[in-house]
């Protein structure tokens, strides 16, 4: 027998897999009723390639199946058409072929596995790198960014006014950000890398139910972190299955309402700002009007469906089917730092959107302090920040009554099983929520939101559950990043003897603050920090909306605005306010992530009253600044 | 013994780790406690961007100890962590005669300058910290 090295076998296997993927896709196209000559040719060519390669490396079973397939396609080619009845058997043959390839690869590569693989050819189209190496690089870059911020902090004040030195510091920061982005980019893969099997799976699932369905994939080249990609493959399959089982109607029903007998599913992916939206849409019957009505009253359709899926109640009936497992999908996506939205129209279809961070390497957390230590909570799981001014009790467990719900209340330290000194009077607390559960977690102080580079606790601490990882703060300390689902899972009893002391109620009308930011999560966070401190808050998505509210709405005491926004940015808003005779003296504070001297100068020139850099953004600094502006 | 060892002190007792298992010796820094970890695990700290577990060697050995002074970063098996000790005494060869000791975390002991020195089984210490940190 000819000695064949492992690398050659690997190449043969990978090529066969590529061919098989194309064969499946083309068979599905043929089934969809596409003009047939071209896909028939393509399937023939791929079957032929697999046969040739298999014969070369001595995979006889593989070669035999490929030859049969080739023969059948040869006939179809000369006939100019392929009998639709033959698609099913051909798809089955391609499954057999794939199995044969894997089996024969395994048996042949084992034999000569001791032979070391030769060094790869010089000119490779892409470079294979151990993911751990990329992570190590990302760690080093993250650390360098933090180091630069510390340096900027220390040196910044000493070189105030030295434009040359300041400019170089700014330049360093920009270069490092670019480097960090480039390394994060190395961790990402296109969505298409996990979707190859989906069109076939959809077809088979539909066929099993006596339905017809096809799947189109749009935006397959959208990049996602490989950890997120492997995490969403199962949820997406689940959503596709739901769509086929509960969305797509049987062919006769579809034809009766004037739809194509074949249902259409779309898997779409696109970048939306710092997030990637992955959508599963169907053109089926949609959810019931009653359910839509309930969603309109009670908040999101995703929550209603997820809750319904949990219920076995008969009245929910087939509606429950639509939500089966959606709660699991939602919990999973949230643990990746994402969120789930559902839109549906009666008779027209349903769209489930997973909003995911591009990378798991960086996570947006709300930092809370307890006993001198900082803990991070992923922002998507944080509903709001409250002040615990009154504690109720149920079955001897503390509860916090909020927006008509008696939520379980716990001390962060007690929940984690740590021993800590008593909480302050009227402690701040974070309302954590998933679709089905919510709880209130009290701490000493809310420090504000941060973007943290996530590091694994790993090794010795790999068995400790409850943490998504850890991140390094600007001052070099480590903050543990909590798994919100784990906290929500804890029995309320864990909150046990939380000693939370109520405080006297507030008096007098509170100042009204307008929060302007294009990011929902930022608006929500800032609002709840301000509300917890006793302010009244209104929000606007961009400068134009803010200006409208200022001109036509109630009398605001302060505007807190982001710099970069669509429609009208922070500077334009500021100028517009200063040029408006009636509101020209309204205090305006600018919050932005750029610490650039340039921005600061332009802000000051345009008449900003305060300038808060997000890097330094913490609850204390924000509240002190605001108190100074509205109190004085 | 032929291999150089790092000699450590916890409380009144002396221990030694083979230099091959010691990555570096770092000054004591802020350690972030990790609720849920084993009693002997003090928490984690930031070692040049890497988040590393810090293990209290005194607790692992059941020794009464004074204030912590140094972190010795060690590896054993596929694990690495910092051992928090009071003092690093010296680095060098140890006397050749090894006496057996009945202790899961020690491979034996030697007598150096009339002081008994326990030879640490790093893998065993790290594994014990990991096993105790599962919940």
Give a written overview of the molecule.
Chain A is built from 21 helices and 23 strands. By secondary structure, chain A is of the alpha/beta class. Chain A folds into 5 domains: 6-111, HPT domain (Four Helix Bundle (Hemerythrin (Met), subunit A), Up-down Bundle), CATH 1.20.120.160; 133-187; 190-357, Heat Shock Protein 90; 362-495, SH3 Domains (SH3 type barrels), CATH 2.30.30; 512-631, Response regulator (Rossmann fold, 3-Layer(aba) Sandwich), CATH 3.40.50.2300. In chain A, a hairpin with a 2-residue loop joins β8 (362-370) and β9 (373-378). Chain B has 135 residues and is mostly beta strands. Chain B has one domain (5-132): CheA-289, Domain 4 (OB fold (Dihydrolipoamide Acetyltransferase, E2P), Beta Barrel), CATH 2.40.50. Helices cover 12% and strands 48% of the residues of chain B. Chain B has helices at residues 57-61, 122-132; strands spanning 5-10, 13-18, 22-27, 41-47, 50-56, 70-76, 79-85, 87-92, 106-112, 115-120. Chain B has a 5-stranded mixed β-sheet. A 5-stranded mixed β-sheet of chain B has the order 3-6-7-5-4. In chain B, a hairpin with a 2-residue loop joins β9 (106-112) and β10. Chain B is globular and about 40 Å long. Chain B starts with a strand and ends with a helix. The mean pLDDT of chain B is 90. The chains are: A alpha/beta (632), B mainly beta (135). Chain A binds chain B through residues 139-140, 142-143, 146, 373, 413, 416-418, 455-467, 469-470, 472, 476-480, and chain B through 29-30, 32-37, 41, 43-46, 48-51, 53, 55, 78-81, 126, 129-131, 133-135.
Task: Briefly characterize the structure.
The complex is a heterodimer of chains A (632) and B (135). With 632 residues, chain A is an alpha/beta fold.
Cα separation of the termini of chain A: 91 Å
Strand order of the largest sheet of chain A: 10-14-15-13-12-11
Separation of the first and last Cα atoms of chain B: 40 Å
Structural class of chain B: mainly beta
What is the averaged pLDDT score of chain A?
A: 80
Number of strands of chain B: 10
Subunit organisation of the chains: heterodimer
Low-confidence stretches of chain A: 112-124, 310-321, 492-506
Domain count of chain B: 1
Looking at the overall shape, the CATH architecture of chain B is Beta Barrel
Supply the CATH superfamily name of chain B. CheA-289, Domain 4
Number of helices of chain A: 21
Number of domains of chain A: 5
Shape of chain B: globular
Q: Strand share of the residues of chain B?
A: over 45%
Percentage of residues assigned to helices of chain B: 10-25%
CATH fold annotation of chain B: OB fold (Dihydrolipoamide Acetyltransferase, E2P)
Low-confidence stretches of chain B: none
The biggest chain-chain interface is: A-B, 31 and 30 residues
């Amino acid at each position: 027998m000819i000695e064949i090295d492992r690398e050659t076998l690997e190449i043969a296997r990978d090529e066969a897999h590529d061919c098989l993927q194309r064969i499946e896709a083309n068979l599905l196209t043929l089934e969809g009723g596409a003009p047939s000559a071209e896909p028939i040719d393509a399937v023939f060519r791929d079957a032929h390639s697999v046969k040739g390669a298999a014969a070369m490396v001595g995979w006889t079973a593989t070669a035999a199946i490929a030859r049969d397939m080739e023969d059948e396609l040869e006939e179809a080619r000369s006939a100019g058409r392929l009998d639709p009845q033959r698609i099913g058997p051909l798809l089955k043959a391609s499954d057999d072929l794939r199995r044969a390839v894997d089996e024969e690869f395994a048996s042949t590569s084992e034999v000569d596995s001791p032979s070391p693989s030769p060094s790869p050819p010089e000119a490779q189209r892409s470079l294979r790198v151990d993911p751990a190496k990329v992570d190590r690089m990302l760690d080093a870059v993250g650390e360098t960014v933090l180091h630069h911020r510390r340096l900027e902090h220390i040196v910044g004040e000493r070189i105030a006014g030295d434009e040359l030195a300041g400019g170089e510091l700014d330049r360093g920061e920009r270069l490092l950000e670019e480097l960090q982005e480039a390394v994060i980019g190395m961790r990402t893969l296109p969505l298409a890398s996990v979707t190859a099997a989906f069109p076939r799976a959809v077809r088979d699932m539909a066929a099993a139910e006596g339905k017809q369905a096809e799947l189109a994939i749009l935006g397959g080249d959208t990049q996602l972190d490989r950890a997120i990609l492997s995490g969403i493959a199962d949820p997406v399959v689940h959503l596709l299955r739901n769509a086929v089982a509960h969305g797509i109607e049987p062919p006769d029903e579809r034809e009766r309402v004037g739809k194509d007998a074949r249902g259409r599913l779309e898997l779409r992916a696109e970048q939306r700002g710092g997030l990637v939206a992955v959508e599963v849409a169907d053109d089926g019957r949609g959810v019931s009007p009653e359910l839509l009505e309930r969603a309109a009253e009670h908040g999101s359709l995703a929550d209603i469906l997820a809750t319904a899926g949990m219920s076995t109640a008969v009245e929910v009936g087939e509606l429950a089917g639509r939500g089966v497992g959606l709660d699991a999908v939602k919990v999973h996506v949230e643990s990746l730092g994402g969120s789930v939205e559902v839109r549906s129209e009666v008779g027209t279809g349903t769209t489930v959107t997973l909003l995911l961070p591009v990378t798991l390497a960086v996570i947006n957390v709300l930092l809370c302090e307890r006993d001198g230590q900082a803990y991070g909570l992923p922002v998507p799981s944080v509903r709001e920040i409250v002040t615990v001014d009154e504690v109720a009790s149920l079955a001897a467990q503390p509860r916090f009554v909020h927006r008509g719900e008696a939520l379980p209340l716990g001390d962060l330290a007690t929940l984690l099983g740590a021993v800590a000194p008593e909480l302050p009077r009227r402690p701040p607390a974070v309302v954590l929520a998933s679709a089905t559960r919510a709880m209130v977690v009290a701490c000493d102080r809310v420090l504000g939101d941060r973007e943290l580079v996530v590091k694994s606790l790993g090794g010795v601490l790999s068995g400790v559950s409850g943490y998504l990882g850890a991140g390094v703060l600007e001052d070099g300390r480590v903050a543990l990043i909590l798994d919100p689902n784990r906290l929500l899972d804890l029995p309320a009893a864990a909150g046990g003897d939380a000693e939370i002391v109520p405080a006297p109620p507030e008096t007098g009308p509170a100042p009204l603050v307008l929060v302007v930011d294009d990011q929902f999560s930022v608006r929500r966070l800032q609002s709840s920090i301000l509300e917890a401190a006793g302010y009244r808050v209104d929000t606007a998505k961009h400068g134009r909306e803010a200006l409208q509210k200022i001109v036509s709405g109630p009398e605001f005491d302060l505007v807190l605005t982001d710099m970069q926004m669509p429609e009208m940015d922070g500077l334009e808003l500021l100028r517009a306010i200063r040029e408006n005779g009636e509101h020209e003296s309204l205090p305006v504070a600018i919050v932005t992530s750029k610490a650039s001297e340039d921005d600061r100068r332009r802000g000051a020139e345009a008449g900003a009253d305060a300038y808060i850099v997000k890097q330094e953004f913490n609850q204390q600094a924000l509240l002190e600044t605001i108190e100074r502006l509205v109190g004085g | 013994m032929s291999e150089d060892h790092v000699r450590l002190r916890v409380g009144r007792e002396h221990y030694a780790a083979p230099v091959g298992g010691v990555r570096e010796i770092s000054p004591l820094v802020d350690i972030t406690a990790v609720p849920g970890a084993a009693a002997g695990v003090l928490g984690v700290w930031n070692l040049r961007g890497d988040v590393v577990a810090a293990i209290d060697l005194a607790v692992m050995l059941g020794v009464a100890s004074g204030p912590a002074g140094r972190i010795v970063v060690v590896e054993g098996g596929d694990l690495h962590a910092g051992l928090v000790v009071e003092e690093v005494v010296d680095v060098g060869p140890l006397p050749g005669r090894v006496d057996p000791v009945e202790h899961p975390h020690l491979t034996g002991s030697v007598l150096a300058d009339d002081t008994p020195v326990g030879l640490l089984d790093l893998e065993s210490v790290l594994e014990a910290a990991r096993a105790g940190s599962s919940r």
